[in-house]
Amino acid sequence: MSKLLIEVDDEALAEAQRLLGTSTKKDTVNAALIEVAKRIKRAKALAELADMGERGDFDILLEKGNYRP
Hints:
single chain, 69 residues
């Protein structure tokens, strides 16, 4: 863990604390960092799935006979 001395917006911190359900500033900042990383990973995965759909990678699933006996 890194120790940082930073200035943060008190209102933004309070709102993040309320939304994340955290009780300390440290927990709030750590939870927010984790949440941002997870959201960006999910957005990238969703974009990749959309690209696959555009390419037709899932077209085989349009006909049940292609994947069901």
